Amino acid sequence: MLNKITRAVFTSMLLSVSTLSVSSLASAADQPIGININAMDSSVKPGDDFYGYANGNWVKTTEIPADRSSTGSFLVAAEATEKHKTDLIAELVKGQPAQGSDDARIVNFYQAYLDVSGINSRGMAPIAMDLARIETISNLSDLSRALGGSVRADVDPLNATNYHTENLFGVFVTQGLATPGEVLPYLMQGGLGLPEREYYLSDSPKMAELRTAYQAYIETLLSKAGIKDAKTKAAGIFALEMQIAKAHVSREESEDFAKSSAVWARKDFTVKAPGMDWDAFFAGASLGKQQRFAAYHGAAITNLSALVASQPLQVWKDWLAFHQINTHAEVLPTALDEVHFAFYGTTLSGTPQQRSREKRALAMLDVYLGDAVGKAYVSRYFQAEHKAHISAMVQQIVDAFHTRVEKLDWMQAATKAEALAKVKTLVVSVGYPDHWRDYSQYPVLADNAYANAVQGEKAEYRHQLAKIGKPMDKGEWWMTAQVVNAVNLPVQNALNFPAGILQPPFYVPGADDAYNFGAIGAVIGHEISHSFDNNGAAFDSTGALRNWWTKQDFARFAEQGKALADQFDTYAPFPDLHVNGKLTLGENIADVAGLAAAYDAYRASLGGKEAPVINGLTGDQRFFIGYAQTWATKMRDAALRNRIATDGHAPGMYRALTVRNLDAWYKAFDVKPGDKLYLAPEQRVKVW
Questions:
Q1: E-assigned strand segments in 518-636
Q2: Mapped to the 3 state alphabet, what secondary structure does 125-167 carry?
């Protein structure tokens, strides 16, 4: 839904919730309102600035924490989860768990990460063998094998906020876009230390400034790591990454699934992408016997392979060494950790202060032992009745979406039948998995944070490769149970709603239904709708990339998408930068359709009656305010620029304005022509 996918295997618990009424949990008289009344600014006219009306006082009075680049509703939930995890880890440390258990792995990882004095005293010794191995590279075959050996499991290309990885290629494993039923390794472009290719290629003064700072950072990091001739090496590394960026396909092309669905046989790589010693590469990547690959970034694979052969061997060695250090700076001596944060935290994101080591340790546990932490987390902090309640809401919103599709008067019968099949076969998982990850093959030491990170990456990679050749698991999750996020997986036709987001302010147990439907209900609707956004609509009910639209229906769908993109293009937080409506279109379609489905489900839950007025607000008003308050967002300028340049999600203050496209919002707040946010009925986007 919102951010990069972390790792977990997650399936739905089998609960019978079809008869549970969301409205039955509490009467209106004893329900909390859910809305933060103090966050609102009633002096603002809703029709002129609905975000300011719902969140104005919050914006005025809230300070971004010094160790954050932004704040908002997601941070509120994340900090609550962080507090729970802090208590959980303290309990595990005190309990002295049995060696070899997941609890012991958690404790060992945590304590090793916090042992800064030990990390400093060991200096560069933990990474020395890896750097020495890079230095022994003497020819193209050695380099190709080393590049293969550096490959790690990558994020899902269908849901990632960007596609950069500091390894030259990333591997993601799932059903192929054009091979229903066949699970393949996707090979994807990588190799950049800056967030995205446009950071290298854009001619804007800001990007030019960041490039200068990045090259200086490379030099500083190498110097502090004791690498000789750091200045010359930094210049060579940066020049190589400029070539890598030029070899990449664009963000827009990367999101064109039709262009990304090619399957290459093993022999195709030598013909289509000469340069690399592919036998050595695949042997290094533990894929020597694999005969078929999803060439997700086919053009980039060709271009990058040519670079491997054409660029100086020593520069590639320097590049490998830099990225081995750079990606592990926080588990190396403090001097490296500090300069790493100074660039990535402060220069790129505007964050003035590094987070505490303890908080960062919790975040790293989610990356390397996410399922182990998640299992302990949900057993303590996620109640079964909340899972049942939310599962009931999910079903109500799925039903509402199904009804909306059935009633579409512009869609022909053949297209509608395919759309309804997608709704009916959605696999929805709520809260936490039936089956947890097995970490028994992941050795975690109590005194070597660097080794724990490297071994954790290898364990994740092995876990992903083990799926190749097996039937696709439609219940697989790419998030941990404790993450504050949610996701739609189009290849699996599945939805994941982790326990981490099923808490205030997104879900308030026992609160007014209007609030919960507007808050978590809209999140649920958003994820359902991703199956039908400009990307998800390209997949059928089996997860196969297939055009199931009539030409006329798709033209109508594309027309509404363009109108929504144009709408978001008008939002400009800076004079020289506006939201990219095309880049954010998928998320914006999901917001519009999801909010509409959540509203329909809310109205259906009332059984034909009107909700009571609470604090002077009608039920519909509370629904829309609840939605806008979940998008409360305050960002540092550098972080906001970064978001707009690279992220497929519009900033929260603009996502809150999705309400402009729902007729019910106009009625709820008496929004009329002349109000700044007013859209004529024919201009309101109705995608589904």
A1: 633-635
A2: HHHHHHHHHHHCCCCHHHHHHHHHHCCCECCCCCCCCCCCCCC
> Which element (helix H / strand E) includes 595?
helix 585-605
Question: Model confidence at 159, in pLDDT bands (50, 70, 90)?
Answer: very low
Q: Find tokens 């769908």 and name the residue.
A: 557
Would you call 441 helix, strand, or coil by DSSP? coil
Angle of CA points 282, 285, 291, to nearest 5° = 40
Tokens of 577: 């930068």
Q: Look at residue 254 in the predicted model and tell me its pLDDT.
A: 86
List C-alpha distances in Å: 384 to 17, 381, 507: 12, 10, 14
Which DSSP symbol is given to 349?
Answer: T
Q: What average pLDDT does range 539-558 have in this prediction?
A: 92
Residue 25 reports pLDDT greater than 50: no
How many Å apart are CA 649 and CA 406, to the nearest integer? 29
How far is Cα 316 from Cα 235, in angstroms, rounded to an integer? 12
Residue 443 and residue 455 in contact, taking contact as beta carbons nearer than 8 Å: yes
CA dihedral 454, 459, 460, 465 (to 10 degrees): 130
Mean pLDDT, residues 390-399: 96
User: Rounded distance, CA 115 to CA 451, Å?
Assistant: 13
Q: Which domains does the chain have, with CATH numbers?
A: 22-84+368-433+477-683 (3.40.390.10), 141-313+460-468 (1.10.1380.10)
| Paired sense of beta strands 263-265 and 169-176, if any | unpaired
- The CA distance from 176 to 72, in Å, is 37
Euclidean distance between CA atoms 360 and 18, whole angstroms: 40
Q: Show Cβ contacts of residue 124 under 8 Å, excluding neighbours closer than 6 positions.
A: 131, 225, 226, 332, 333
- DSSP string over 245-260: HHHSPPHHHHT-GGGG
Preceding peptide of 97 cis, ω within 30°: no
**Nearest of 7, 2, 4 to residue 459 by alpha carbon:** 7
Average the pLDDT over 14-27 and give the result: 27
Confidence grade of residue 155 (pLDDT, cut at 50, 70, 90): low
* pLDDT at residue 490 greater than cutoff 80: yes
The whole-angstrom separation of Cα 56 and Cα 632 is: 9
Contact between 281 and 148 (Cβ < 8 Å): yes
Percent with pLDDT over 90 in the chain: 85
pLDDT in tens, 617-634: 999 999 999 999 999 999
User: Is the confidence at residue 310, as pLDDT, over 80?
Assistant: yes
Burial 347-357 (b: 16+ CB within 10 A, else e): bbbbbeebbee
What are the start-end ranges of the E strands in 407-485? 427-431
What pLDDT sits at residue 311?
98
| Contact yes or no for 540/418 (Cβ under 8 A) | yes
First to last CA, the chain: 18
Of 411, 462, 414, 415, which is closest to residue 439 (Cα–Cα)? 462
13 or 554: which carries more pLDDT confidence? 554
